[in-house]
Amino acid sequence: MKNLFLIRHSKSSWDVPVQDINRSISARGVKDAHLIASKSVALVPNSYIVWCSKAKRTTETAYIFSEYLSIPIETIYFSEDLYTFDEKKLHEIIKKCKNEHDNLILFGHNEAITNFVNKFGDLNIENVPTSGLVAMQFNTEDWQNLGKGKTIATLFPSHFKNE
Predict the structure, then answer these.
(1) What is the dihedral of CA 1, 93, 38, 48, to 10 degrees?
(2) For all residues of the chain together, what is the average pLDDT?
(3) Of 105, 106, 134, 161, which shows the fewest CB atoms inside 10 Å?
């Protein structure tokens, strides 16, 4: 059984004109990341590998989640390849995960995340929002053989607006 936790970066700040890859998260993004990270503690297993896009907003999001999930920063694999908006490329990258790891947490970008969860999950999601987490389970022992999986949980900031 393989478990995949896809986390879209937090809301970007557009206050400063910078290249897309260098955009930080906004104040709302910080708040939403803390909210979803705190809710994810009960969902995420004890053993996992963490991959993250090298974009500034994804790394900032990963740092916030690392506080709640006790992820040592030095264990996060940061990759320029994960700075993708294409679900086919995202799928190819996920297939490279070593089979010794049953649980992969991945911080990335939309359209790739929404399109991936709709292609491989069993729940149609119109749009995975910023700071959104989608947990998926695949009945395989080999990341190379990911087929249709099961969407086991979604954690979106809008789910907790009334708290």
Answers:
(1) 50
(2) 95
(3) 161
159 falls within a domain: no
Sequence-distant (6+) residues with CB within 8 A of 91 are: 116, 119, 120, 146
pTM of the model: 0.96
Q: Residue 144: inside a domain, yes or no?
A: no
Q: Give a yes or no: residue 112 inside a domain.
A: no
List the chain residues with pLDDT less than 70: none
Looking at residue 131, its pLDDT comes to: 97
What are the distances in angstroms from CA 92 to CA 80, 81, 86, 135?
14, 10, 10, 18
Which residues is 34 bridged to in the sheet? none
Structure token pair of residue 1 = 């059984």
In which domain, by residue range, is 47 found? 2-11+22-107+119-135
